[in-house]
Structure formats: C-alpha cells, structure tokens
Specification:
CATH topology: Jelly Rolls
Number of helices: 3
Structural class: mainly beta
CATH class: Mainly Beta
CATH architecture: Sandwich
Strand content: 35-45%
Radius of gyration: 20 Å
Helix content: under 10%
Shape: globular
Number of domains: 1
Distance between the termini: 34 Å
C-alpha cells in the first residue's frame, strides 16, 4: 500500500490532530507511514520578510489568505484555504454571489504581520467579477486594471541589500506594469516592473542617469503566469524569468548598492505606470537566496503551471 498523504481528503500537512492526538506526533496509521508534505516556506522560509499568496505557504500559518469586500452591500469577510491549502473559492463565491469582489487585505503569511491593505474601494484589486473568480493559469489571482490599484504594506522595515524577491504573475500587455514599489525616502527606492524588471534610484530621476535598470522583457502579453526572480546585491544582482537569467543592462551600474526597501512599500503603485496584470504570489527575502532559486522556482512552476 502507498504511504498516507491524506485522511478523508484532507492533506496531512493541513491537520493539527487526529482523534485528539497531535498530528506531528503520529508517524503511521494502520502500519502505513504518514507523509507530511512540506509547504514552500516550511522548506525555504529562512530570512523571509513578507509572503503573499492565494495558496497556503506555511504549515504554521493559521490565518486567512485575503479579506474581501462584496459590492452588493459592501460587507467584508476573511477568506481562508480549503483542505488542500488552496484558496477557498467555495467560501469566496458563496460570500460574493453574482456580484464583484475586491481585496481589502492580503495577509502576510511570513509570520511578520506585514499585511497589504487598501480601504479605498476604487483602489482595490479585483478577485471576483460578476460571480466568477479571477484566475491566471487556472488558479486564483488578484487582478488590476485601473490606475492606482494598490495595497499598502504595513510596518515594512528598512532593508539593505541583498534582497531577493519571487513573483508569479501574467502581463496583459498594457504599458509597463509595476508589481510593487518600496521607498525609504524620495531619494532611495526600489521598483519592480514586469517589462523592465527592476528600477532603483531617485524618484525624480525617471528616465535619467540616476535610474539603473536591469532587463527588458520581450515575452509580450500572455495569459500564462510567469515566475520572476530578482536578487538585488549591487554588481552581483540577478534577474530570472522562468528560471532563465536576463542580462540586459542599461542606465549605468547594475544596481545602486545603497538602494533599500523601506517603510513606504506597496503592492502596485499610485503613479504611472500602474498595475494591470494578474498576480498570484509575492515572496520577499532579506538575503541572497541564490542557493534556493531552483527549489523555490520549481515549487512555483509546478503549482502555477508556468513555462
């Protein structure tokens, strides 16, 4: 007989107890080994600063995935995960009905409580449209579409390089989209784009020599999600798309060595370019995660069926 990875269709990794016994203390049932498959952050969570996803990333995380507002009565509720660690789309569509649903909060699964929040309705990302859950690559995704849609990340620490980020999203071809931007002050920022991958420099210097840029994507619009990896560490910086390194450099040095993430950090941005894509996952680490690139990317690639 095969090893056990589910009981009554509930993944072992999502169980806390069986018949009153702590699941972590059980190694077999009726002679069959109990297999506790690790989630992404269980394996690669060291140095994580923040983690946002519509799937469960850590077996120790007990909160919801997102908080959603429905448009019929503007009521809100938290939406968690199903028994397999996926977004609970049944609870989501039951709550929203035939209406639209928007993301009020995207919960941080890192354990650092750096939730992304937006209380202004016109700036909220979409998750349900006319009763249908937004998807990318067949799995749920938040969707942009109008200028200024963004989530403000609370209590983000000032973080120096090295910084590594992993994003999963699909670009719809509308402009140069900003996935997230982080400012320490007006002279020190890091901006993550889909089309140009990475900007760092002085905000007032867009288009000037104070901005350093890595990469210029040529993949074009796609409904298929892609995995983007960016490791910012001065001249050692790396940008990868679907596990392939991008090497185009413009604007001088690879990255301003002093560029940092800071307390004014948002998913999306309140300026142009804005966010039109579909986004499923962002994980940010305050370290050089080069040694974990393949493991993290493979996990994302498998779950999201990316190229």
């Amino acid at each position: 007989m095969p090893n056990i990875d589910k009981l009554n269709n509930v993944a072992v990794a999502n169980m806390s107890s069986v018949d009153g016994h702590n699941a972590s203390a059980i190694d077999s049932i009726n002679g069959q080994t109990l297999v506790t498959a690790s989630l992404l952050l269980d394996q690669y969570g060291t140095d994580v600063l923040a983690a946002y996803s519509l799937r469960k990333l850590s077996s120790s995380y007990t909160g919801a995935a997102i908080r959603v507002r429905e448009t019929a009565f503007n009521t809100e509720t938290d939406i968690g995960f199903d028994a397999n660690g996926n977004l609970d789309t049944t609870a989501l569509t039951t709550f929203v009905g035939a209406n639209d649903g928007f993301v009020v909060k995207w919960y941080d699964q890192s354990g650092n409580s750096r939730d992304g929040t937006q209380t202004t309705a016109i700036f909220q990302f979409s998750i349900v449209t006319s009763g249908v859950v937004e998807t990318s690559g067949g799995v749920p995704a938040i969707s942009g579409g109008t200028s200024g849609r963004r989530l403000a990340i609370s209590s983000f620490p000032t973080t120096s390089q090295p910084i590594t980020t992993f994003d999963v999203y699909a670009y719809n071809g509308s402009g140069t989209d900003t996935t997230w931007i982080s400012r320490v002050d007006s002279n020190n920022f890091i901006r993550i784009d889909y089309k140009r991958f990475l900007y760092v420099g002085i905000l007032s210097g867009f288009g000037g020599t104070t901005i350093n840029q890595i990469g210029n994507i040529a993949h074009g619009a796609s409904t298929t999600p892609h995995v983007f990896t960016r490791m910012m560490n001065g001249a050692s910086s790396v940008v990868r798309v679907d596990q392939v390194a991008e090497g185009t450099i413009s604007g001088g040095d690879w990255v301003r060595t002093g560029a940092q993430m800071g307390p004014d950090t948002t998913i999306g941005t309140n300026s142009t370019p804005t966010f039109y894509d579909k986004l499923s996952e962002i994980i940010i680490f305050g370290a050089d995660k080069t040694s974990d690139f393949t493991g993290i990317e493979d996990d994302m690639k498998t779950y999201y069926s990316t190229p």
